[in-house]
Amino acid sequence: MIVLATIGSIANRQLGSGVAGTGLAGLASAVDPAAAVAADPGAAAIATSPVLSNDATVPQQSKTLQQQARDRTAGALQQGADRNQRADP
After folding, report:
1. Domain range for residue 26?
2. Cβ partners under 8 Å of residue 43, min gap 6
3. Is the pLDDT assigned to residue 81 strictly greater than 90?
4. Closest to 41 (Cα-Cα) out of 76, 85, 9, 88
5. Which of 8, 36, 48, 53 could bridge across to 29 with cysteines, CB 3.0–4.6 Å?
6. Burial of 35 by CB count in 10 Å (0-12 exposed, 13-18 middle, 19+ buried)?
7. Domain total of the chain
8. What b/e readout covers 36-52, taking b as 16+ CB neighbours within 10 angstroms?
9. Would you call 19 helix, strand, or coil by DSSP?
10. What tens digit of pLDDT does each residue of 5-32 get?
C-alpha cells in the first residue's frame, strides 16, 4: 500500500512539474545533484533517480517508478537511522 502511494505521488509530481522532485532539493537536482544532497541530506535517492521519458515504454516507465520507490524508501530509512544514531548519546 505504501509503495503504491509513493508511486502515485511520484507520478503526480512528475506529470505536474516536469522536474524530478519538488521543493529546494528537486529544483537543485535539476541543476546540480550535489546541491540537492546539500539542500536535503536524505535526497540522495531523489537526486540520482532517472526522470521518466515520454519515449519510454510502459514497462520501462514501470521499472523506473519501482526503482525510484526503492531508492526513496532506502533513503528515508537511512535518514531515520542517521537521525536515531545522532539522538543516542
Report:
1. 2-87
2. 21, 25, 29, 36, 37, 75
3. yes
4. 76
5. 36
6. middle
7. 1
8. bbebbebbbbbbbbeeb
9. coil
10. 888 888 888 877 654 444 545 544 444 5
Residue 56: what pLDDT?
Answer: 79
DSSP letter, residue 53:
-
Burial of 80 (0-12, 13-18, 19+ CB in 10 A): exposed
**What is the spatial distance between Cα 89 and Cα 87, in angstroms, rounded to a whole number?**
6
Q: Which three cell numbers stand for residue 46?
A: 531523489
E-assigned strand segments in 25-84 = none
Torsion over CA: 66, 46, 23, 76 (sign): positive
